[in-house]
Amino acid sequence: MMNEKVILAYSGGLDTSVILKWLIEEKNYDVISVCVDVGQREDFLNVQNKALKTGAIKSYVIDVKEEFAEEYIFKGVKAGAIYEDDYLLGTAYARPLISKVLVEIAKKEDAMFIAHGATGKGNDQVRFEASIKALSPEIKVIAPWRQWSLNSRESLIEYAKEHGIEVDATKENIYSRDENLFHISHEGGNLEDPWNEHKENIYKWCVPSVKGKDKIEKVIISFKKGIPTAINYKNFSPVQIIETLNKIGSIHGIGVIDIIENRLIGMKSRGVYETPGGTIIFEAHKALEKLVLDRNTISFKKTISNKYSELLYDGLWFTPLKKSLDSFIEATQDNVTGDIVLSLYKGSVKSIASRSPYSLYSKEYVTFGEDKVFNQFDAEGFINIFTIPLKLQAEIDMQEVNKKNDVAI
User: Fold this and answer.
1) Helices 90-109 and 295-313 meet at what angle, rounded to 10?
2) Catalytic residue among 17, 131, 176, 354
3) Whole-number pLDDT of residue 323
4) Which residue, of 32, 68, 105, 371, has the fewest CB within 10 Å?
5) Distance CA 198, CA 165 (A)
6) Is 48 part of any domain?
7) Which of 11, 33, 59, 95 is catalytic?
8) What's residue 158's pLDDT?
9) Is residue 299 part of a domain?
10) Is the same domain home to 188 and 270?
């Protein structure tokens, strides 16, 4: 009798390496590993070989970087999606796309099981499983962290040693990291106590801000319909845009945050995130929207942005509401075309100049000098009408005061 096949979301790191062996040894599955390339800096041939060496019957590496940048990250940029005012959602963008690939491979291999390495305490288990259920509800999900007796990263390290699995993690270097094209995150270790100041030697991309370049660097980002298309007037693909800005931002120490966030499942967690390119893009996009969008659209879009970020964080990418919000967001981006000049210096990024063929800014109207388009006398009638509610309320208040005075007399 043949063993059941399971598709494993595989990175080659500690968790998924142990899971691969555990699925074989403890559950008698035939494991097909799938490493989805969303831009993590990895030797993918080595990852593939490691999976086969650990016991996988087949190993895939699927490159989806362009789709990741254009159809996931840039949709979030256009939405202005920032979770709880801090987190640029790097991990959350990748999970639905990875899930989509896992489902495609499962159907190709005629497998009815998908396994992932997310823990029972985190958000990723929900993101993976919500996406899988939305795309292929007949597939069953295996989440070893919710099933096995291994209850810590230390115990995983011991398991790896006992089974001859090579891993980079040690009991000293025990941070849990997630890396993709957009960001790298750090959790665990001494970060689990929020009173501990994080150590700057954990950074993998960025220099500490105080060690950033001593000279201000100016960068021009060009957008077309809300999507960044060029840096300093040189056109790039979506992936190249992010990669180039990651390099530029990292040497200035831009995009490092240390935050406490509210996980979907109810607990708070702490993470250090490095998102240099993404931080630059979001700042530029925000500045351009201020130039071309009207006041009411900007105000209402903030509400949409907040809800959009929550949907992404909660793993609800493949939902009717997300699709509907995308339609609204796309409509707001029709005129988000133009150039933004940014100043980069020691961890800070600031918009210092902007222009667009759709700019709603008119020097003729706002000038303090002489103009021929605005009759300042018109403001008097506007103020009289605008303040009618205030005037009426004041009259009512005065009547109440008079009544009280009459009673007192």
Assistant:
1) 50
2) 176
3) 97
4) 371
5) 30
6) yes
7) 95
8) 92
9) no
10) yes
Which residue among the candidates 11, 15, 17, 222 is catalytic per the annotation? 15
Whether 309 sits among the annotated catalytic residues: the reply is no
> What does the alpha-carbon distance between residue 12 and residue 91 come to, in Å, rounded to a whole number?
17
pLDDT at 362: 81
- pLDDT at 409 (0 to 100): 65
DSSP string, 252-308: TTTTEEEEEEE-TTS-EEEEEEE-HHHHHHHHHHHHHHHHHS-HHHHHHHHHHHHHH
In a domain, 248, yes or no: yes
Identify whether residues 169 and 21 lie together within a single domain.
Answer: yes
* Pairing mode of beta strands 348-355, 338-345: antiparallel
Return the H-helix or E-strand segment holding 99: helix 90-109
Where does a domain end: 127, 150, 175?
A: 175
The total number of structural domains in the chain stands at 3
0.85 exceeded by pTM: yes
Q: Do 175 and 188 form a contact (C-beta atoms < 8 A)?
A: yes
Question: Could you read off the pLDDT of 129-188 as tens digits, one per residue?
Answer: 999 999 999 999 999 999 998 988 889 999 999 999 987 766 656 788 999 999 999 999
Residue 355 catalytic?
A: no
Do 135 and 253 share a structural domain?
A: no
Q: Is the dihedral of CA 61, 66, 71, 77 positive or negative?
A: positive
Catalytic residue check, 95: yes
Do 129 and 67 reside in the same domain of the chain?
Answer: yes
Which residue is catalytic, options 124, 309, 314, 354?
124
- Domain span at residue 260 reads 183-293+335-361
133, 46: one domain: yes
Q: Does 315 reside within a domain?
A: no
Q: Across 64-155, where does the E strand assignment appear? A: 113-115, 140-142
Quickly tell me which residue has 């063993």 as its tokens.
Answer: 3
Residues of the chain with pLDDT under 50: none
* Six-digit token string for 393: 């309320």
Token pair listed for 272: 């250090």
* pLDDT score of 4: 95
Task: Please give the angle made by the CA atoms of 203, 173 and 41, to the nearest 5 degrees.
Answer: 50
Reply yes or no on whether 176 is catalytic: yes
